[in-house]
Known about the structure:
15 helices
Amino acid sequence: MCRQRIEGGEAPACVAACPNGAIKIRLVEQESVVGAARNAEEEKHLVAGAPPSSITCPTTTYTSGGGAPAFSSSKSATDATRQHAHWPLAGMLALSQWSVGMTAVAAGLAWWGRVETTLAGSASAVGWNSAAKCLLVAWFIMVTAMLVGALHLGRPLRAWKVFLGWRTSWLSREAIAFAAYLHLLTLAVGLALFDIDGIFHGEWMLHGGWLDGHGWFGAVVGGAMVVGLMAVACSVAIYAATHRPAWKCLGTATCFAIASAMLASAGTAVALVGSPVGLGAAWAALSLVFLRVAFPYLHLRVNASMSKNRQERLFVLRSMRLAQRVGRSHRRGLGIAWMLSAVGLVAVEGIALGDSRQHTVDVAMLIASLSLLVMVVFEWVVRADYFATTVHPTMPQSNR
């Protein structure tokens, strides 16, 4: 707003240049504007069709003696078209949440490994090897998520600036949390690799208290899991903070949790193929696939029924109709392929568990990996639809 001109007592350039004197600018107290917008008894809008002022707290006002021009209207109020899918962002979200889910599984397996060692009185608990495998998978997935997410940036070399807004921006907090998560995950993988290589013959991680052995490894894995969950919570807050009717906090959090658990279960089944844990993870993945297929429509339907505001309900219903129209070409086939891949995962896990020959296990690993790949690709597609099919209030624009 031409800060130098205002500080010098001059009007901004746009005000001085406007031939009709239609622009006026004055200094306002930000706290008073925010308080007035958020504490108003009636919901106000900057102009008809715009998002509620309680969300954006605008300092701009429009005044017209003749009312709004006939050619100005909110496009979203009359037209529901497919939005940008943001494929790199959709991939980053799906992969990062998958990684956090795998870390949570690794933390559970690490604890289980310690219990098994204590009960057996030996230093050869299979749980540690299982946890190490899941950590390796989680680390690889998270690195891939970071690389895919960079494709969403217009200027990747300036990505470091995202940390500057940590006090007010959920996006900055998400970036900081995922960076900390990746560092902790890398440290945990390093400790796990030491154990796999037998440098400490298993005893360094399988015995002792917090100052040696299990304590350090458990603390790092548990810390990575907690920080990762905090990062996913920041991801949820980013979309809930937009106040878009189809992106409410509870529904978004549930969607992310189901997807994370589903992919983590499938990833665990592949990492531990031929074991009882792998078979159990495959069954869990199959159950979660059914829930994941039904959840998008169920989520929008519940949102519409619970919306007290008529306009908000209309936007949710438009989002649901758009999702049905856009997904008509691929959702049915996607759901069938998703379920078949999960069924195939359960089948090969059962075969590998019953026949422990190396050839059988190798073939089962290949088929299970292909099933997992199908599930990941389809989750990526569904997550892109999450962005592409939301209808929300927008600023009016000219229809000329």
